[in-house]
Write the structure tokens for this entry.
Amino acid sequence: MDKFEDKVALITGGTKGIGRGIAEALLELGMNVAITSRNLTAAEKVAAELSKAGKGKAIGVKADVRKMDSQVQAVDTVLKEFGKLDVLVANAGLGHFAGISDMTIDEWQETIDTNLTGVFFSVKAALNELKKSKGYIFTISSLAGTNFFAGGAAYNASKFGVTGFTQAIMLDLRQDDVKVSTIMPGSVATHFNGNEPSKKDAWKIQSEDIGELVVDLLKMNPRTLPSKIEVRPSKPPQK
């Protein structure tokens, strides 16, 4: 992708963790970025911080990926502010972890609605604009999207779904010159599942590492598409 300075990205769940790391990397390229959160105050606060640090402009947008009309409104906000959309990063996600005997219906529904249906809504809302710009869609899956574990029924189901969904739409959209990749991180030093990042997480993938990966993919020759990328810590602690 050439001339990053006039490109525009929309990142769902962009106020912290992987989403923020990607936003920082794209802004450093000179791109303009919209980050979404269900909390408008948080989104606008982080966007102001990002704008000061990066070369591009960041805006905060209130949006809930679980609602299609909310995602349509988020795209409309981006178009009103920047006039176009070149990159979608479907990042927003959460995790509820429990054995099937203990998992509640609400926990299951929230996980699937956010992690899987939310990705579908984000893509559907942005797709027409991305076709116009011959843009790029990134989904953030997980190594849990191919590797199951006890207590992960809802999270595994959602991330297996994201991995499969993304690979299918990659095939749907390649002839439209829309590139699609899913990134599947292992352990990342974020606030996910109540974690508080600290020195104990130094061995983990850092959010800026995922940002760097997105930049590398955007810079890749358009004839080549890494469609599914697994990312692991180089040297996790021995058990």
